[in-house]
Amino acid sequence: MSALSLRLPESIHRHIKEVAKTEGVSINQFISSAVSEKISALMTEDYLKSRAKRAKKDDFGKILAKIPNRKPLPGDEL
Fold first, then answer.
1. How much is the pLDDT for 67?
2. pTM higher than 0.90, yes or no?
3. Is the pLDDT of residue 77 over 90?
């Protein structure tokens, strides 16, 4: 594991401290989890963009054609 020196505005540090306490974790655990979530979101976005580039409109149309034509369930009309 490596150490990182991080400078934060007091207000952010205070919020992190409060949330970490509420969640029952250390500040380090909270920040590590938050950074992990952000990295995961960015990697997912990159993955979806690369998949979208390979998509073909004709294939999409074929998939949509397989969906049965039914009335929406109550509450799903919009």
1. 93
2. no
3. no
Residue boundaries of the structural domains of the chain: 12-65
CA 74 to centroid of chain Cα atoms: 30
Identify the H or E element spanning 75: none
Please give the pLDDT value at position 20.
Answer: 98
Count of H helices and E strands in the chain?
A: 3, 0
Please give the Cα distance from 73 to 71 (Å, whole number). Answer: 7
Q: How many residues does the chain have?
A: 78
Tokens of 20: 């970490």
Given a cut of 80, is residue 41 above it in pLDDT? yes
| Packing angle, helices 10-23 and 27-54, rounded to 10 | 90
Query: How far, in Å, CA of 41 to CA of 48, rounded?
Result: 11
Spatial distance between the Cα atoms of 25 and 32, rounded to a whole number of angstroms: 11
